[in-house]
């Protein structure tokens, strides 16, 4: 994984940012900056949990709202702990909450701790596939063709985090910045940037 992470860093350095840098990326940075109280406190309050979950996706919010506030606080306190080193356990804790899949859990991690974690989603995954870093078929979850979302495994999450962290360390970027570069490359016309 070390060699792959360094290879990704070299690709990013050689290609720079795609021509189309979406304004959404600046909004996500502002959101992450506003999460400083969460970083200091070490967990999400229920209203913060709902807000971030909805920002990632409004789908399934009726399930997310069924979580109990004390459970959300306890789970996020453990998941955000720097003493917890096992990413599988971390993502498993967060996905034990109702309505929280791996992409939503990764957003909770990244948006509260942008230096430590990326968001895993179809855009970043498509870029990694295009670059040859991942070779998995798309397992799609329920929904209409327009709403289908890729289902990621805990192993894919762990591998993604490792790859992004190695690249971010090599470049001096945050995990969120690497993730944003991958995301931006998949936007309209930006995959040509990688050829």
Description:
With 195 residues, this protein is mainly α. The protein has one domain. Helices cover 60% and strands 0% of the residues. The chain contains 11 helices and no strands. It has helices spanning 2-15, 24-34, 36-41, 46-56, 61-64, 69-80, 87-95, 102-112, 122-131, 154-171, 175-185. The radius of gyration is 16 Å and the shape is globular. It comes from Brevundimonas pondensis. This is DNA alkylation repair protein.
Gist of the model:
Helices cover 60% and strands 0% of the residues. The protein is mainly alpha-helical.
The secondary-structure element order is HHHHHHHHHHH
Low-confidence stretches: 140-148
Number of domains: 1
Computed CA radius of gyration, to the nearest angstrom: 16 Å
> What is the rounded distance between the termini?
23 Å
Overall average residue pLDDT: 88
Based on CA inertia axes, which overall geometry fits? globular
Helicity level, as a percent range? 55-70%
Beta content: under 5%
The largest pleated sheet is described as: none
Strands, count: 0
Helices and strands: which structural class? Answer: mainly alpha
Contiguous helical run count: 11
Protein name: DNA alkylation repair protein
Organism: Brevundimonas pondensis
Essential attributes:
195 residues, mainly alpha, DNA alkylation repair protein
Per-chain topology:
Blueprint: H1 2-15, H2 24-34, H3 36-41, H4 46-56, H5 61-64, H6 69-80, H7 87-95, H8 102-112, H9 122-131, H10 154-171, H11 175-185
